[in-house]
Amino acid sequence: MEKEMKTITAVPSHPSCPREIRQEIAQLERRLRTMGLDGDCAYERALSQAYDALLLQKRRQLAALREAGL
Asked: What domain of life (predicted)?
């Protein structure tokens, strides 16, 4: 599980291809579904908020690529 978390949080800061971004979004959404919406502890709630922030960032990045015609 630790390896999976590193993969999820080690997000490149430069634009990726749309396919990679969609895969990252799907991975984050799967992880959130696995955790559930209301975490059992403060750690899970904080992790859920971090995933939500990453999802927002990835969705904005994907929208920017679409606007740029990529």
From this structure: Bacteria
